[in-house]
Amino acid sequence: MEKLKAYLELVRAHNLLATALGVIAGSMLVVKPLLVPALIAIITAVMIAAAGYAINDYFDIEIDKINKPERPIPSGRISPREALLLSYPLFFLAPLIALIVGIFTALFAAINSVLMYFYSRSLKRMGLIGNLVVAFSTAATLFYGALAQVEWIKEWKVLALIMPVVLMTFFLGLAREIVKGVEDYYGDKANNVRTLAVVWGPHKALKTALILTIVSIIMAIISFFTTPLSYLFLALTVSAGIASVISIAKAMKGKDPVSAAKVPRRVMKIAMFVGLIAIILDRSLSLALLGYKAEEA
């Protein structure tokens, strides 16, 4: 049981739930989501995410010995070799399993596997590039869930319609990563990590995050017109976006934007979770209503 607990900690089990929710939300953006492609997308996305977390801790062994000695690898509960033996098969098997749905779903899974590997190996230390990869991987869960459904039913035009929702998630995710860079400004500057906060300064970085958050709100509004999502989704996502904008603006006005950045970072994390729940809740209610009307007819 102790070994299992260590493995669950290694792969960030709580974050895997968020990955699954993202895929479920993406699947539900399709008018009539089907169970088989949804399950395959969820399973393979969770496999890639778990592999990514494991390989991340492998490459961060020396850093974690100092900053997070309680983590499974530096604490000795999981060996570096065990982390590799877990991550490599998951990276390899996920695209193969995704082939059950189709070649494009498998290809997208393979791209994400490669991206997660190189992010952990080197990209995460390259500042903005690392931020872009994280934002892409966050939005990719939505796109992946929808892609699996679309390839299964061969309704490719749906992908274009759901892109505003994907972009909403991408821009908010990128904004949050930039805010995290502001919060980590002093450590990143000392270690020559070229985040926007280090290159442009904390204030300009927060201003950029503010603009990106506003763009994500605009994408949410556009999504209302291009998808089956209703006023419930619109109200929840726009409210969460406005809360994020207000929190960033307050951090910008503070005397110490670096220490103040932790508040908008937390608010934006909640906003992203609210966005996923808004999609799932909105579509669940809509599908339940459609089923009720069908029974009446």
Describe this structure in words.
It is found in: Cell membrane. The chain has 297 residues and is mainly α. The chain folds into 2 domains: 1-154, UbiA prenyltransferase (Tetracycline Repressor, domain 2), CATH 1.10.357; 156-297, Up-down Bundle (Four Helix Bundle (Hemerythrin (Met), subunit A)). The chain is 83% helix and 0% strand. The chain is built from 14 helices and no strands. The mean pLDDT is 91.
Whole-number tally of structural domains: 2
Examine the secondary-structure arrangement and name the CATH architecture of the largest domain.
Orthogonal Bundle
Ranges with pLDDT <50 over ≥5 residues?
A: none
Q: What's the level 1 CATH class of the largest domain?
A: Mainly Alpha
Distinct helical segment count: 14
Helical content, roughly?
A: over 70%
Radius of gyration: 20 Å
Strand content: under 5%
Q: Outline the biggest β-sheet.
A: none
Shape estimate: globular
Please tally the β strands and state the result: 0
The span between the termini is 53 Å
Mean pLDDT: 91
CATH superfamily of the largest domain, by name, is UbiA prenyltransferase
Strand and helix order = HHHHHHHHHHHHHH
Per the CATH scheme, the topology name of the largest domain is: Tetracycline Repressor, domain 2
Going by helix content, strand content and strand pairing, the class is mainly alpha
